[in-house]
């Protein structure tokens, strides 16, 4: 998923092309996917990120740019894709193939949401704008999911590789500390 505007980053680059440790975030995510057991990679882009679309060397799926959920729905409707699908946000510069393989191993069918305790995000000093209660605990989505045909499960982890989404310049500074 790499079609976001990145307005909270307050940077000149499109969000997926924002550099963390000198490398565009989308390139770091693509490297993690290449180092994982994922069979095929498609990038969901939007009109909000035309430079990102030109930058990518993988097939793209067009989305309307109406927000993460609407864009995900549009991407999943593309005939190139079939479920289950591993979805990964382009703002996760600490991802690597090993953590993605752990997610795939945790997937037992249906859909799987990868969550992190909201307290872990606060402990790391990164933004946690989207939190909700699950099993009596405040959690945040990570931007990594497996979308299947039926059912929904969750995998809770405090792993920094999925806990640090870069939405602000402060988030980027935290990510760079872990590179």
From TrEMBL:
Keywords: Transferase. GO terms for molecular function: nucleotidyltransferase activity. Residues 2-122 form the MobA-like NTP transferase domain. The keyword Transferase applies. Gene3D superfamilies: Spore Coat Polysaccharide Biosynthesis Protein SpsA, Chain A (3.90.550.10). The keyword Magnesium does not apply. InterPro entries: MobA-like_NTP_Trfase, Nucleotide-diphossugar_trans. This is NTP transferase domain-containing protein. It comes from Haloarcula rubra.
